[in-house]
Amino acid sequence: MNKNTELLKEIKLLYVEDNEDSRESTVEILEYYFNNITVARDGEEGLAFYEKHYLTTNSYFHIVIGDIEMPNMNGVEMCKRIREINPGQLLIMLTAHDSKEYLLQAIDLGIDKFITKPIIGIDNLIVPIMDLSKKIMLDVELQEKDFLLKQKNRIIDENVFMTVSDLNGKIVEISQAYLNFTGYKREEIIGSNHSVFRNESANLKIIKNLWTTILADKEWTGKLKNNKYSGEEYWISSTISPLYDINHKKIGYTAIVEDITNTKRLESLSITDSLTEIHNRRYFDYSLKKDFKSATWRREKFGLLIIDVDYFKDYNDCYGHVKGDKALKIVATEIKKYVNNSVEDVFRIGGEEFATLISNATDEEVKTIAQDIVTNVELLEIEHEKSKISKFLTISIGAINIDGSKDCMSNEDLFNLADNNLYKAKNGGRNRVVFNENTDSIEKLKNLDIITKLPNRQALIQELSMMQDESMLVLLHINQINSIKDLYGLEKVGDLVSQKAKQLSQIIIDDNVTLYCLNMQEFAILITKERLFDKYLALLKYSILTNSDENIYHPDDNNYLISDFTAGVSYGIVNIFNQADLVLQEAIMAKKNLIIYKNNQTTLELQKATLNRLMVYKKALHSGNIIPYFQPIIDVKDNSILKYEALARLLTDTDEIVTPYYFLDSAKQDNTFEFFTKQMIQKVFNVYAKKKTDISINITYENISSDSMRDYIKNRLEKYGGDGITFEIVESEEIKDYELIENFILMLKEYNCKISIDDFGSGYSNFTNIIKLNIDYIKLDGSLIEKINIDKNVEHMIIALLSFAKNANIKTIAEHISTPELDDKVRELGIDYIQGYLYGEPKSPEHYDIV
């Protein structure tokens, strides 16, 4: 049997013949080629079989073969009746030489093939059938392609943001998904230009570059700011490609659009300090600029406190970093108590430095707030035997209060003045407040531009926000700066930073290269011309990082102050600062002088990075140092503790407690990830067994999809029970099989466990599938909650998610509640439960007395 006859195996055949001998001999031949044959003995039976087959399978036979002369119902009548049922049915008629009576009728009916009886050879029977089979298979192939094309077009229309425009930019087609997203009707868009979407603040240079590119028949990719029908702003990443007809003549353009609004927001609003869970330096820079400008417009007073923990290096050296971190958290909590109608916010802006913003308060009120904070931090009675001024931990504060109706200065000037007052407080004996509003100091600070007279951090951020071309960013960290400050004082630190700035300025001599001083410990170099990238990478490696002359002579003890750099480098346009900062921190931790951020790391490099991370992780794992910390979840009705969430922590050799997320990506590539989860779950159940405290346990899709992991969880539930246990399943793009999730949840429900969906609203939440699951809670993504008071779009999204949950009769939890303002807001919106630093940070089970 050759490949041409193989296709006959897929053909469904109805064979009708009244002559038993002819029927048996023909069937014997057909069965050799066909797998699916139905045989009938006359026309009536053949028609009945045809009708029954359609009713039971909702499909037709591919080919009907019938004798022309049969009792009860002849072949012509049978075929006529079949054609009434299915006009496109392929028909083969078996005719004898004396069948002239019916032959003309059969021809008029349009029979597809005639085979003369008696059938002399196999080819006389099979070849006609094969000819029709080829036609069948071609039709099937075309139908499948048409079906797939329609299905693909429907999926694109429903899920992809797409427009098609003519050569003049007029929109001729738009997907329903994009219409749904923007709120426009099709008739409002067809025939319009894309400017119908454009935000009035859109960069016209980008639009010009777009048209220059596509008119040159090139593909353009870029980011644009648009407006919905409602006026709501959104950001898109758009790829516009030329569209050609069959003769390769350009007839228009196709645009594929992706909504990147949340990404843009997240890039600019990474605002939480991971240790203290108050706002971080990046958000401080943003808030200071925004709030100070607002106060200036309103002609109101605006105050700033910069707070530094006294002799904190000595505290860490004496008590260890774990207690040092704990002390910082306690101090942050104490400062947060002063957040009220005047104190806008509290920030951690450095290792042991904090800041607060104060709006529309008198000078006396600012001084009182500052002095109260100093007094009450010492009253915390955090023992500090290495302090030179008290037996307890103390703080110093530099304070400033500017009258917006009189003083005209930048937010940098404001910070510099408060920072200068802090230096005076520390040099004047510490554990005190220095409040100074001297206009001479203000003018001096304006002219000094801190110490180096270089562009500062805000200038760099502004420059990065306007970049259109790929650039290179180098972040330089001055090593040993804290030791030098403690040993020799702030004046010598200023001398060192000034000399470093001078040395760097002598190296950086090209146009399109700018040196910035970000703070007393960091410089940045921005190179905006690609042709200079290699040059400055070489200068970095062989000059800046190896220059042994970068020392300052200290005459008091005839020594040089030795200080070198650690560098982080990144390339690109978007997120370039965060990437450089990430590798800079990694270089500092790894004690390397340089790490370059790479999107396209080789397999070998990725393996090396993974192995380095796994070293610390595996050591902790195999020594049983994966431990659970607990954070309370609060009921908004009475502020009682509903339950505690168990959060994994890693205990290092030096008794430091660190989060394991830095290692988890590497761990998930290793077969120990399940071992990690089992170790964590067992330790959580050990805590649960003591007092039967209600606890939430995090679980991932990788865990659920593992047979052995599911068996382990079931085994633990058999031993300890499930009353009071909640499993938090992270809702993410990794989830492929919701039926597996549903079955897992059904198993948990047998033990009275509750189910929560974690990170809900993070961008992947599948509402259709979630609502089918038997869940009890959804935990709203913390990155959204943190921005609910500063972004109306996020607030609207949260309102929609809460509405969804309420309609589905699912309770809601808001995490990352770190300020009273956030607390008030989520309560106002109708959240059921809250979790965050405001009500308790992650702590050991002993701290919360649950063991």
What's a quick, concise take on this entry?
The chain is of the alpha/beta class and 851 residues long. Helices cover 45% and strands 22% of the residues.
Quickly list its features.
851 residues, alpha/beta, Rossmann fold, Beta-Lactamase, Alpha-Beta Plaits, 5 domains, 8-stranded mixed β-barrel, 5-stranded parallel β-sheet, elongated
How would you sum up this structure, described in words?
This protein has 851 residues and is an alpha/beta fold. The protein folds into 5 domains: 3-154, Rossmann fold (3-Layer(aba) Sandwich); 160-259, Beta-Lactamase (2-Layer Sandwich); 272-440, Alpha-Beta Plaits (2-Layer Sandwich); 457-600, Reverse transcriptase/Diguanylate cyclase domain (Alpha-Beta Plaits); 608-835, EAL domain (TIM Barrel), CATH 3.20.20. The protein contains 31 helices and 31 strands. α3 (43-57) runs parallel beside α4, α12 (312-319) crosses α13 and α22 (603-622) crosses α23. The chain starts with a helix and ends in a 16-residue tail after the last strand.
